[in-house]
What we know:
This protein is α/β, with parallel strands linked by helices. It folds into three domains: 2-153, Rossmann fold, CATH 3.40.50.11220; 160-228, no CATH class; 251-369, no CATH class. Helix content is 31%, strand content 24%. α5 links the parallel β3 (75-80) and β4. α4 (61-70) crosses α5 (85-101), α5 (85-101) crosses α7 and α10 (323-335) crosses α11. The protein is globular and about 70 Å long.
Amino acid sequence: MKIGVVVHGPNIIDSGYALKLINLFKEYGEVSVRLGGTMGRTAVIDASLENVIDISKKLVPSDSLKIFHDEDVDVIFLLNYGKSDVTGQVFGYKVYNHYVDKIDDNNIPVIQIERPGEEDGSVIPWNNELDMVDEMSEKLNLAVVTPEEVYNNHIRQDDVGINQRIVHGVSPGENIMVNSVVIGKTNSDKLTLIAKDNHIVDIIGGELKEHGLEKLGEVDLESAIIKTGLLRHAKVKPRVIGHDDCKEYKVTFLDHAGEDVYKFRDSSLVITVGDDTTLISSDILYRFDIPVVGITDGDLDKVVESGFKVKNSIIFEVESGFDDVCGQDIKRIMFGDEQITYDYSNIDEVKDKIIEIIKNINCKYKINYIK
Length: 371
């Protein structure tokens, strides 16, 4: 039997269950594993599982499922560890339906393992009634939840039009991230985002952050990736594996946390713009021993428990609201239409040029050196 396994998110990896389940599946046949999503990459690296879980491509979960479908495996498992049974089951529903929209024939069984080890964990057979489902339920002590139950309990209420989207399983005081941009904070356990003309215009159960909405811009609310709370809950010791060598001093520019930071792993230095972008990117780049020069304004939304930064990184804290202004000038003056420059030979030259740009904006700033 050929078994495809899609692992989503850091929590299933940090919990140890991803590896346990992969080893369990090997009792049934030949197993291939790939990541679905982005945030799980650091967890794979920290757990030294790069040779077990393929993280070579940035893929949304439904695309990872489709690859296994195209490879004609016999069964596909989706492994997830949602914040609650509700968020996990709704996640699976959306991923499975996005996947179905991308294939011509839905002939390969898809089984989700959700929150293994928890009392509310479940096995969800999205399109099958295999004996394997009951076996997994018994071996893992998880209830079997049918797709009909997921739809009736959590999805049916979503059918209120394409301009509204209910976000399940939230708690008061959590950040709301849409496509990796923080756009607000919850103040209730029920959250609904409302969009008009592909822009989020209102929120029920939270407060919007105008600066975040400006960064987000247009968005397809139906397909957007929405998360609340911390992106990664476990406190871990990061594993540093070093970065790919580049013969020249390569400086890259990053102004949006949603970009694929991993493609910069051959950089000598990365300039990041925005508090959250700097926090997330520097934490990832720490694994590759790549320093950052961050442009922030102190408007930080806590999206990871601990943010690591490489020694000798430099963080500029400018006046409130000026991080984007400074970032735009840095991009224009130092990079032009490109995202990469080889015009500098070390981080001090980059720092001096940024100081010159900020001074021309007539903006107050202070510098924090990471030692």
